[in-house]
Amino acid sequence: MHRRPSPFAWFTAALALAACKPAASTPGPADAPPGGSGGGGEVAARSAYDYPLTRKGDTVDTYHGAQVNDPYRWLEELDTDETRAWVEAQNKLTFGVLGGIKQRDAIRTRLTELWNYERYGVPSKEGGKYFYSRNDGLQNQSVLYVADSLAAEPRVLIDPNTLSQDGTVALSGTAISQDGKYMAYGLAAAGSDWQEYRVREIATGKDLDDHLKWIKFSSAAWTRDGKGFFYSRYDAPKEGDALKQKNEFQKLYYHKVGTPQDQDILVYERKDHPQWGFNGEVSDDGRWLVIRVWEGSADKNGLFVHDLAGGVGKKPVVELLNKFDAEYTFVGSKGSTLFIQTTQGAARGKVVAIDAAKKDAGDPATWKVLIPEAPETLRNVSHVGGKLIASYLKDARSEVRVYDEAGKLERDIALPGLGTAAGFGGRAKDTETFYAFTSYTWPTTIFRYDLKTGQSEVFRQPKVAFDPSKYETTQVFYTSKDGTKVPMFLTHKKGLERTGQNPTYLYGYGGFNVALTPGFSVPDLMWLELGGVLAVANLRGGGEYGEAWHEAGTKLNKQNVFDDFIGAAEYLIAEKVTSPSKLAIGGRSNGGLLVGAAMTQRPDLFAVALPGVGVMDMLRFHKFTIGWAWVSDYGSSEDAEQFKALRAYSPLHNLKPGTKYPATLVYTADHDDRVVPGHSYKFAAALQAAQAGDKPTLIRIDVRAGHGAGKPTSKQIEEWTDLWGFVVHNLGMTI
């Protein structure tokens, strides 16, 4: 089983869906700032909503001879008294407006009812014990349990709900030693990416004195003897800069249980490559430390190996695959042979065997192809029980195949229907594995798969207070602006009449090789119960059809993503599913950028926009935390040609005063250290100044929250009560 921590956990949406164009508009004159004219002073918004006064500064940047004003630059400074006062004033207005929506209480009540169901995570097995998470329904955080057998009564191993009063301390990662004696676990507070790791003795449930800090974008990988583990961390940031300082010079360490962090062994660093990151994984037999070397969000990485025979650091780290010409992921090993999933010479993925003991092991000519490239997109491979379990996407839905170690196809795994399967982890000697299956109307169900018989059986199946037989999901294909066929999932009540008046929520992402696949979520179910249509578009830039599909939505091709999204909206309107007055759009993170670009390019096409934790300033995103890593997908304003492309669609820089924009609820969080909240702050200020229509343009700023990972159930219910309330009210829906 392999893991891939990276700075782009933020763009994964497959199983967590709340869980999308005529040509781009021409950017304004170089001296026209977003949201109005330049210069100092304060400008009051022209609206019945009485927006707070937002000071305009006189900051001007020069990019390749072009001057670009940035009047709201001061909002990037998150901890000043002025910014705090602005946040407080905006929230006072927003929550006042939201509190006046009459349907809001009914939405909250039903969301709470729907969310109150028992749900489980996919089990793992170590040292003869089973580990899995469970949430009894409304617990803010899921609880991790351990059991001696599948039939045994489990006991609590760690309950994150006891770690804070408001549920904002989340379990952000766990790793169990092979002997089942210890668990290394990470905790993240208030939604931050920063983690602190501790070690718990599994038999007693007690923590040792081990305490590791400044960990980010890392997992823990135990040595086979269980005496210690590998992890990656950064140097401590400057005082007060933890939420915005650039993350560079990550280092890979070995921590021996029972020792202080300052005695950890530095295994690998690269002072000549400040943006390289490292994630280590130990082979089942304990011989190999396989180091995934990543740089930014690119799907091209290195794979280095460290032979642990004789101990940590006794042999040098070998740059096995150092050309960064493709994606390489460690799957498993057998002796000196490493099983590697790669896109080298196979844009949709394949599996090869590499003999790490050979001097020419890095030469593709010496590799043996075990699983060749298929018409479907290979997304994940695991080595379990002497089998290679390969998970594919066919038109954005899962197919799973089982091969032997020589690459011979043994069988397909029968799935319950159109949906998403994930899991299939374990060790090379296991006789069983577990996986989850989910779809838009199928709550995430956990299956046990017998590797000998090839049979699946339900391990845990949740019971949710709704009737899935009333709904249906279909997949359609529409034509984008340049003629590209794009798939989209439509979910709604059976018997839907295409009157052109159905309230519709169009969701999208389109970036970083992330595939949007069918997944169950309570907020989506709430929308369906309200009579809405859920439309999820599989835009270019994602990973639904391999690397070519991804690259078609990156850098100078990024406009394709927005064209695909606008094309989805136009399809829904042409097919009389909905109309502009009944169409809402939403997306988070890179999807927030998507919504911001779509609403500024085609404000006439949408009634409501929900841009969440979005990348809104495309000229400065790379200057904060891990933002530099997104250059591989977006490009950079430091490049003249890429600057022109970025400025042409950057949501902040394409707001035009005097335009009637959709009703918009921007939402972000004050502790978001992935996409810093300054993006949303500046966009909301400029939007309020530019809005010429009578629709509200508000910003909702969550406190003690981050980019989304680990958000307590209570906060999720609050957030979706506000989002759906805003949509329902502004689409004129009745409950």
Automatic annotation (TrEMBL):
Q: Which GO terms describe its cellular component?
A: cytosol
Give UniProt keywords alphabetically: Hydrolase, Protease, Serine protease, Signal
Which reaction is the catalytic activity of this chain?
Hydrolysis of Pro-|-Xaa >> Ala-|-Xaa in oligopeptides
GO molecular function, a single term? serine-type endopeptidase activity
Q: Which InterPro entries match?
A: AB_hydrolase_fold, Pept_S9_AS, Pept_S9A_N, Peptidase_S9_cat, Peptidase_S9A, Prolyl_oligopep/macrocyclase
Report the Pfam families cross-referenced here: Peptidase_S9 (PF00326), Peptidase_S9_N (PF02897)
- Signal peptide, first to last residue: 1-18
The UniProt annotation puts the region (Disordered) at 23-43
**Coiled coil regions in record:** none
Cite a single GO BP annotation.
proteolysis
Query: What EC number is given for this enzyme?
Result: 3.4.21.26
Domain (Peptidase S9 prolyl oligopeptidase catalytic): residue spans on this chain: 524-733
Q: Which part of the chain is the Peptidase S9A N-terminal domain? A: 53-461
What enzyme category does the UniProt record give?
A: hydrolase
Write the protein's name. prolyl oligopeptidase
The scientific name of the source species is Nannocystis exedens
Q: What is the lineage of its organism?
A: Bacteria, Pseudomonadati, Myxococcota, Polyangia, Nannocystales
